[in-house]
Amino acid sequence: MSNLFPVKLEGALVRRAGTTLVGPLNLELQANGVTVVLGPNGAGKTSLLRMMHGIARLGGGRIDWACSPEEARVSQAFVFQQPIMMRRSVLDNIAYPLRLSGLSRVKAKVVAAQAAADVGLGDMLDRPAPFLSGGERQKLALARALVTKPKLLFLDEPCASLDGRATREIEEILNRAAGHGTRLIMSTHDMGQARRLATEVLFLLNGNVYEHSSAEAFFGGASTAKAQAFLNGDIVE
Ligand SMILES: Nc1ncnc2c1ncn2[C@@H]1O[C@H](COP(=O)(O)OP(=O)(O)OP(=O)(O)O)[C@@H](O)[C@H]1O
């Protein structure tokens, strides 16, 4: 259970060069579950996640967490589609956020080694991150994000361009994290993944939330024609 929630967005938007990328959005998310953000290319999925995480500047409106903004900031992490790694070992990459949070070098390495083992990288501790495969790199990104035990984890298409096996392994890690109480908000283009992981769906179109419903309701028959067309694999604009 997380004390960041409910989070309320009121008129929240992101602008870039005079264009509104996402919003204005009114949205309330509750403490439990896995929110999957769906929508066609350019719908604003990445912008929404970045706005909520505070790495895209709020150009209007507000985002109110159930805790202070500072507490919300330190309680969340973000996994990017193309994770940025230090050109150092797997262990050093995972230990880095722990060192930043003040843990001693020795303690950080012990905790990081366990986190690496938890995502299946236990036998690659000394391998330089640039030498990892795409799937291994994404597991490293997850270990690095989860090692500080965030209450909320954003993921932007975490399995894009990964094969079925790597995707399954990543989903197992995400399920475990969710089971341990980490709130997940993620975008994906993989409808199978959305069905497997989502407890609720945010369907975005043209920078706005077009549908917000339980996964059961959404996949059972979306309530808007455009969401249903998207589910059917049609081109939606
Ligand atoms: N830095 C930027 N400057 C200008 N426009 C941008 C910028 N980043 C995104 N956009 C535009 O904002 C809109 C929303 O982009 P966003 O990446 O949030 O969509 P998305 O749903 O994540 O798309 P995709 O599925 O293709 O990743 C798009 O039209 C995109 O071209």
UniProtKB/TrEMBL annotation:
Gene3D superfamilies per the UniProt record, alphabetical: P-loop containing nucleotide triphosphate hydrolases
One Pfam match: ABC_tran
Outline the extent of the ABC transporter domain: 7-231
Q: Enumerate the UniProt keywords alphabetically.
A: ATP-binding, Nucleotide-binding
Q: Where do transmembrane segments lie in this chain?
A: none
Q: Could you give a GO molecular-function term held by this entry? A: ATP binding
Name the domain of life this protein comes from. Bacteria
Record protein name field: Glutamine transport ATP-binding protein GlnQ
Gene encoding the protein: glnQ_4
